Amino acid sequence: MGIHSFVSGGENVALIAIQILGISVLAGLVGAVLGLGGGIIVTPALTLLFGVDIKHAIGASIISVIATSSGSAIAYIRDRITNVRVGMFLEVATTIGAITGAFIGGLMAPGILYIIFGLILLYSVLAMIKKTKDELPAEVPLHPMAGKLKLQGEYYDKALQQTVPYNVGNVYGGFGVMYGAGVISGLLGIGSGSFKVMAMDVFMKLPLKVSSATSNFMMGVTGAASAGVFFFRGDIDPVISAPVALGVLMGAMIGTKVMQKLKSKTIRKLFIPILAYVAIQMIVQGVGGQL
User: In the chain, which ranges are continuous DSSP H helix?
Assistant: First the structure.
């Protein structure tokens, strides 16, 4: 049963909107802390709890990604955690990828989208498990291209109460992964924050907080690049997207304050079980839809 079934059946639409709003606040908070975008929770919540069609859920999720970025980017830039130079450099690859993915998504069956979504999240879980004991990256040699573009930086870590300088490595590898992240964003409407964070954290060796903040900054541009395609295809439903956008924006503003008080190890420990649970749920749903 989809959201329009509730409406046509005379059910309490306001109550449903409030429930979606509440879940979206949580999605925005988690997204801002982990750099994932609200879509990581919004898409499975709408499909699994409210029976919304996967393509309408992805359309609402794209809106949530833009809202998460809007609610968190300003605070992270103000506190100089976001590396704007890295974000703008990598945004070229993600924007092109997002447009590619949005067009591909219109040609795929819903069940396949569920399975792809789940497998991507499982891969992200495994990548993060390997780094659970790391608070900050070890000594990272400055990549020649990073030096030319002045991508290195520093930020003040409120949890550690110290200024953390950092270099940037493997620029080309990070750029390639970012194109893939953009394709995934346009395809699944998840903001592909898990891939963005992973590319900066694992490939380019940025501190996790910088990766998370920069991912949030980038997701709004990536989401906007593919939102137009979803809109013209009729996949963005205002009845669903309006409470999602409002809730995610509220949650993201709270999340920016929470993230800065947490240690990177804690953020990773929060990140892993959420992703694992959602990944398994989506794979089960997708496999069931294919049978």
Answer: 3-8, 13-34, 39-50, 54-78, 84-105, 110-129, 144-149, 171-188, 193-198, 208-232, 238-261, 264-290
Q: What is the DSSP letter of 164?
A: E
Q: How many CB atoms lie within 10 A of CB 283?
A: 18
Cα–Cα distance for residue pair 207/237, rounded to 1 Å? 37
Work out the angle at residue 73's Cα, subtended by the Cα atoms of residues 178 and 67, and round it to the nearest 5 degrees: 85
Amino acid letter, 94 = T
H or E element, residue 157: strand 153-157
Find out whether 14 and 169 touch, Cβ atoms under 8 Å. no
Looking at residue 165, its amino acid is P
Supply the pTM of this predicted model.
0.77
Taking residue 233's Cβ as centre, other Cβ atoms within 10 Å add up to 14
Backbone angles phi, psi at 166, to 5 degrees: -150, 150
Q: 107-116, 176-185, 235-244: which has the highest mean pLDDT?
A: 235-244
* Residue 153: DSSP 8-state: E
Cα(26)–Cα(49) distance, rounded to whole angstroms?
15
**Paired residues of 164 in beta bridges:** 155
pLDDT digits (tens, 9 = 90+) for 86-144: 999 998 888 888 788 777 767 766 677 778 777 877 877 787 787 777 778 878 889 99
**Euclidean distance between CA atoms 154 and 75, whole angstroms:** 16
pLDDT grade, residue 8 (50/70/90)? very low
Do the strands 153-157 and 162-166 form a parallel or antiparallel pair, or are they unpaired? Answer: antiparallel
In the numeric block, which tokens belong to residue 70?
């809007």
Token pair 């490595």: residue: 169
